[in-house]
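<goal> How does this chain fold?
<body> The protein record starts here
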Amino acid sequence: MSSASSSRPPNAADQANRRRAAEVTLRLSEFDVPPIHDCLVVGKRAAVGPEGARRMVEAVSPGQYELIRVEHPDAEAVVVRKSLLRLLPEDKLVPMLLDEFSRVGNDRLAFKVQVQVVLQVTRELEL
């Protein structure tokens, strides 16, 4: 299998077989303040707990986020941007976040979530 143990100099095929490479991918993005966008779902055993997450967002964006404690097998809390709660009621948003968290998360994770809301309005005017 290996010509490395032989005393002859390696040919091109041997050198090709020995080629080692590393592929490095860098993704650069602007640092976000606060480090969560719209929501953070906090797992029960995540590295950051609900109070730590609340203090973090209060330190960088005072008064802009709300901590919502939840009853869920894996998640302990959701931190939500208050302006988002003006568009989506808590009783609609939080169950949706927890449903998605259940599909891909576990109790050790904290997921930041970007939420895009597009309102569609149709009005009828009397002529």
Remarks:
- Residues 90-104 form the longest helix (15 residues).
